[in-house]
Structures are given as structure tokens and as C-alpha cells.
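User: Can you predict the 3D structure for this chain?
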Amino acid sequence: MTLSLFPEEVLSDLHFEEQAIRRGFRSIAGIDEAGRGPLAGPVVAAAVILPDRHHLPGLTDSKKLSAKKRDELFPMIRCQARAVGVGIVHAEEIDALNILRATLKAMSLAVSRLKEHADFLLIDGITPLDMALPQLTLKKGDSRSLSIAAASVIAKVVRDRMMCGYDRRYPGYGFSGHKGYGSADHMAAIARLGPCAIHRLSFGGVREHVVIP
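Assistant: Here is the predicted structure, written as C-alpha cells:
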């Protein structure tokens, strides 16, 4: 169920959360993902319910933050948030579903894993979730809502740490550097080594190198 409750203008970083509270909602979860575009690795989504009072200096869209700043904010968000949920969909399922459906599944999983039941969802992007909850999609929501920004940091840090682990498991591809994105070095490694188990075989740049027995 998607509700168009609010005007598009933004008055503050908590504007949408405050408007939801005025309409009687009490547990507003911000939702964002990391990893839609890479050629390898999972898509990771996070849902975060922030408390009424918090201290998260510098919090904004994770893409605008340095890795060091994201790593600083990550434990602060986890400690201060009323609830954090993470959903992960791996490469094989991305290939089976397509990246949009996989992303929506990861977001839904993140919401379902919140320890506190959310009664309103603020979602980064334009596609609502197939969940029986009031929700609002926001273009560039990670720059417009602190709850979504917090989710973007959680999703990004979790995914980046996973990719560093994969770098040790699948040496030669440089996953700890490019995190699975289609850099020149990554493309050269795929051409040289072929895809590995975490590559998205349906993606251009990878499928051309799949060897069919």
C-alpha cells in the first residue's frame, strides 16, 4: 500500500519522519540498498528506525561520505537506532530474479528483520515494496531523509566488508578495491580469469566470458 501523504519540498532532514509522526505513525523505517550496479557480489539492503533523539554528526547519503566516515558512523547508528535490519540477496538469485526484483526482495527482508515492527516505510527510489505497510518512495531519499541516510550507511558498510572477505576467497579479481563494480582492472581480471562464483552471470561485462560446456 503506497500513500502519497507529503508534498515534495523538504524542510529538514527529518521532514518526512516528522510529517509521518504528525499523522500518528510511531515507528518510521528508512530503507536503502547498496550494490545494484556491480558485476559481482550481493545486493544488500538495510532498514533503520532512528530514535527521537540521536547524535550522528555528519550523517548523509553514504555515497557522499568517505569510507573512514562510514566506518565511524556504522557502530554509532547500530548503537543508537531503535532497530536495524539487513537483507542480502546473492548473485545467483540476482541472475534468477533480475536486479530490480532482487533489490526489492533485499529491502523487504531488511524490514522483516527489524526487531521493532515498522508502521511506516521511507524508501529510497521510486518503487514501493509489496508489503502491507504505509510507505513513501523518495527520489534521492538518502540525501533527503536521515533515516534513509542511516540505512544507506549500514547497507554500504555491510556490503563493502563482504566484498573484502570475497577478495580473500577469490584472489586475483581485486574485490576489496573496486567492490565488484566494473572498473578497468576488474574487467581485465574477468577476461583473464573468467567469472567466479560471486559474479552476476546475466550482467553485460560478465556474460560474454561465461564458458558453456
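Residues 1-12 have pLDDT under 50 and may be disordered. Residues 146-169 form the longest helix (24 residues).
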